[in-house]
Automatic annotation (TrEMBL), chain A:
Has a role in nuclear-cytoplasmic transport of proteins and mRNAs. Its main location: cytoplasm. One of its GO terms (cellular component) is nuclear envelope. Keywords: Cytoplasm, Nucleus, Protein transport, Transport. InterPro entries: NTF2 (IPR045875), NTF2-like_dom_sf (IPR032710), NTF2_dom (IPR002075), Nuclear_transport_factor_2_euk (IPR018222). One of its GO terms (biological process) is mRNA transport. It is found in: Cytoplasm; Nucleus. This is Nuclear transport factor 2B-like. Residues 6-120 form the NTF2 domain. It holds the Pfam family NTF2.
UniProtKB/TrEMBL annotation, chain B:
Has a role in nuclear-cytoplasmic transport of proteins and mRNAs. Residues 16-130 form the NTF2 domain. PROSITE patterns: NTF2_DOMAIN. Keywords: Cytoplasm, Nucleus, Protein transport, Transport. It comes from the Eukaryota. Transmembrane segments: none annotated. Pfam families: NTF2. GO terms for cellular component: cytoplasm; nuclear envelope. The keyword Protein transport applies. It is found in: Cytoplasm; Nucleus. This is NTF2-related export protein.
Length: 123, 133
């Protein structure tokens, strides 16, 4: 599968999981994973999932506008750069966001998120 | 490494990231031709979806952008270590004012910085996107 297609597939899977079953995100992180969410730093799959499942909204929907990817180096990692909008249930206007992921290959042939940085893009 | 030492490393990393970002955009806004040395022949740039590889081509692309002057205003800088490459991932958001344009454009950009032998960093990965309304 070509890298761009891989990146798109990952991004779709990630946001579908986020939008329908946030606890399921735990499978996408490992112990060494790092998340910076609106400036707040969290480390490790358990703490990251706790952070994401405790965000102050029940439901949201991500609409992805752009996905860019590049290989990160000799270890087979991929950098993925996303922009789009986020609709929170009950809110009138969607929020704009950008996010970057550093994906690393697993022995089973898939990817996990090693680095994750998320920012809302305010007007 | 005990907790205190670890926090020191993270703070150091953040300082490096901030210093790099300020240097990068200062060069971009005052002397775009001087950006090429920040890249190596393995470097990759994705600029609004267009992929360019190598310091020379990247330098050319940036120098040829269709405006004389611009000014970057940085809102946020986030950074994390990139463990397998020994590098630093830097994620920036802010505004871009093009000379002669009335309204500022919003942008996001990410870099992967890799240490050089001489104790500085070069840009191995660079991805830039405007964030439209």
């Amino acid at each position: 599968m070509d890298p761009d297609a891989l990146a798109k597939a990952f991004v779709e899977h990630y946001y579908r999981t986020f939008d329908t079953s946030r606890p399921g995100l735990g499978n996408l992180y490992q112990e060494g994973s790092m998340l910076t969410f609106e400036g707040a730093k969290t480390q490790g799959a358990q703490a990251i999932v706790a952070k994401l499942t405790s965000l102050p909204f029940q439901q949201c929907q991500h609409n992805v506008s752009t996905v860019d990817c590049q290989p990160s180096g000799p270890a087979g990692g991929m950098l993925v750069f996303v922009s789009g909008s986020l609709q929170l249930a009950g809110e009138q206007h969607p929020l704009k966001f950008s996010q970057m992921f550093h994906l690393m290959p697993t022995p089973q042939g898939s990817f996990y998120v090693l680095n994750d940085i998320f920012r809302l893009n305010y007007a | 490494m005990d907790k205190e030492e670890k926090m020191g490393v993270e703070d150091q990393l953040e300082m490096v990231a901030k210093a790099f970002v300020n240097h990068y955009y200062h060069l971009f806004d005052t002397n775009r031709a001087a950006l090429a040395p920040l890249y190596h022949h393995t470097s990759m740039l994705s600029f609004e979806g267009q992929k360019i590889q190598g310091a020379e081509e990247i330098g050319q692309k940036l120098a040829q952008l269709p405006f004389e002057h611009c000014r970057h205003f940085i809102s946020t800088i986030d950074s994390q270590p990139s463990p397998f490459g020994g590098g630093i991932l830097v994620f920036v958001s802010g505004n871009l004012q093009l000379q002669g344009e009335e309204h500022q454009l919003k942008f996001s950009q990410m870099f992967q910085l890799i240490p050089t032998q001489h104790g500085s960093f070069f840009v191995q990965n660079d991805m830039f996107r405007l964030n439209y309304g």
